[in-house]
# Entry
Amino acid sequence: MQAVMEAIIYVAEEPVKAEQFQEVFPEESPEAIRRALAELLESFNARPGGMWIREVAGGYRMTTRPEHHEQIRAYLKTRPGAKLSMAALETLAVIAYKQPVTLAEILAIRGKKSSSSLQTLLERKLVCILGRKEVVGRPILYGTSREFLIHFGLNSLADLPTLEEFAQMAGDQL
Amino acid sequence: MQSGEDLNQDFRPETEAGGLTIRLDVFQGPLDLLLHLIKREEVDIWNIPIARITEQYLEYLEIMKELNINVAAEWLVMASTLIFIKSRMLLPREPAPENAEETEDDPRTELVYQLLEHQKFKNAAEMLFTREEVENAVWNRPPDEVLEDGGDVIAVTLFDLLRAFQEVVRRFESQRVMEVAQEEVTIEQKIEDIRKCFLVHDQLQFSSFFTAASSKRYIIVTFLALLELVRLREIWLFQQQVFEEIQVSRIKESA
# Structure
């Protein structure tokens, strides 16, 4: 079963969820699948190879190891892709920690207009619309997407450090 | 984090489409500038020398004006807040009742909390920045289509779509032939037609849906039908490159 799982994780374009393995192995119990995945991760990642399997966005994904990035880039002849601006990252941080959040609430925290950053984040599908807030004007509520988790290599939002940690840091910095 | 040592280094002229504009690269907003000034002066956040900081803040605003930077409203709001706090600090304080906390009536308190809150999210943004760096250093197996095309695809924005629509209408009008009254399709029928197309094809050019256009109404109905299918997540629109022909692709039912 682990060999098949490894192969599926390799061919998948998106992180593969435990439930998807369940469809492949209908006769196995969810517990057995979880155990097999845990063992696969342990044995695969113990190998000092160029690849590793990580838990991303609630699924399993095989990627190259970051320490080889220079040589890989030299082979692919690519340069690092377009990164988000600091303004976009700040807006994204506010959304990630305060979601569901409205544009006005983002403005209050950042002390400046954030609509163009928000536009970028929506276009890159890192942020999505969660609904509308039931207050006057019914403003749109924003939250982070699954793509956000994948982009930042997070398994779930719970993987983010807590805001208190950043508050403490801020206290030390100032 | 970047921090400019002298005033001039903090400003980086940059050209952007639509003429020369100068962007404040380091200070995205007034709170960033204040944090920078406070750190540079190494003053205690709970005891900001408001007169000095206000003066320096206004100096920066002056430079921004000299550089013809369009000073956004929030910069002026902050300037007036600072001046207001400064003036309140000059007023003799009412004798505080015993046991009352001193910070309670410090006119600076609210600003301090705002600055701390802002710094907190700046730190969170730094964390995201680092994570993005790491993620940029790993590769997963790219989907096959991308390998074949040798390029990324770009999701189409509303503006691309409107431009494409305009183009279709323009082309139609330039080669208008005689209009013959005929049965007009409804959006529902058109949606069914498009669905049938995608039973056979995986991907079609946006313009191919309009080659048979016999009237402007047909174009509009087709356009709306495409939009409806996008909304229903049956198809999606993308480009290989900006300004290239928009492609319409069926969304494969995912497992």
